[in-house]
């Protein structure tokens, strides 16, 4: 096994002083197995060229002030959705409006205790900040593995390297066995994702009703069966104005449940502007994914979003994607616009696809700001 010292030596090959060879620098970062965190630990003070985000500084669509109420993503309180039919109807209307116009909303009183969310963030921090020797055993680019850690899934394809490392764990329906998960965060991952799967059932019921369908329709077609966890770590960046934490993209999921810390940096594209998603204590961020836009025949919006690099940190977030990760489910089930949402006035917008084919295209394309759904339009 490569030691942390050996990995750091590889990472130090990423120098801003030598003649630029992008592939060589990407390989040096990859072979270090220590990610962006390893660069920071080595004392890096200037960004290697692979991280320079040329459009970041010159963007003509800077985020509006977060106190501008016209440009704040909706906040929805899920309290008493089951017990109070009148309140449930109001919440469904709120979800419909948020999903059609924003593609994002934050939820309160979602049933996941604050002690669990706090420990989930702490668990992801522990994993990324542990000794390199412990972490590198999980380093891989083989996405047939149920557990892996790396930096930038599209490292060799993306035009700019994101300032971010990620722990990936497949959870359901055939996720990682507990013995294969990192011991340092195993228990909290199992606890947190069990609760997120339960929350998913409720969310898909509400979204299904928001579409004018029966409450069980989305759950019946398997939207809430698959779950993959991505534990992101964004180290403090020495030159944040030149970097990007996560590039402009939409998600490949049906729904994404995002737990973020209080540092901020997440922005959503809305009305040709970048709008801050302000961290709210106790809230979870929910966003519509590409697959839900597809099955809703374009009614619900999977919108582009990004994460800014920050000088303070490290920023921690946990994104749970509701979608299948592996065969046979990912290749057996075929998804297209739900028949009840197709009419003469509203013909099908997208062709049918499997999760496997959709995700394969998504991963090949990488985070380039172009929706993967473009490939599946009729």
From TrEMBL:
GO molecular function: dioxygenase activity; metal ion binding
InterPro entries for this protein: DIOX_N, IPNS-like_FE2OG_OXY, IPNS-like_sf, Oxoglu/Fe-dep_dioxygenase_dom
Keyword Metal-binding (UniProt): yes
Domain of life (superkingdom): Eukaryota
Record flagged with keyword Oxidoreductase: yes
Pfam families documented for this protein: 2OG-FeII_Oxy, DIOX_N
Keywords: Iron, Metal-binding, Oxidoreductase
Residue ranges annotated for the Fe2OG dioxygenase domain, each copy included: 225-326
Reported cofactor(s): Fe cation
UniProt similarity note: Belongs to the iron/ascorbate-dependent oxidoreductase family.
This protein's name: 1-aminocyclopropane-1-carboxylate oxidase homolog 3-like
Organism: Cucurbita maxima (Pumpkin)
Species classification: Eukaryota, Viridiplantae, Streptophyta, Embryophyta, Tracheophyta
Gene it is expressed from: LOC111494760
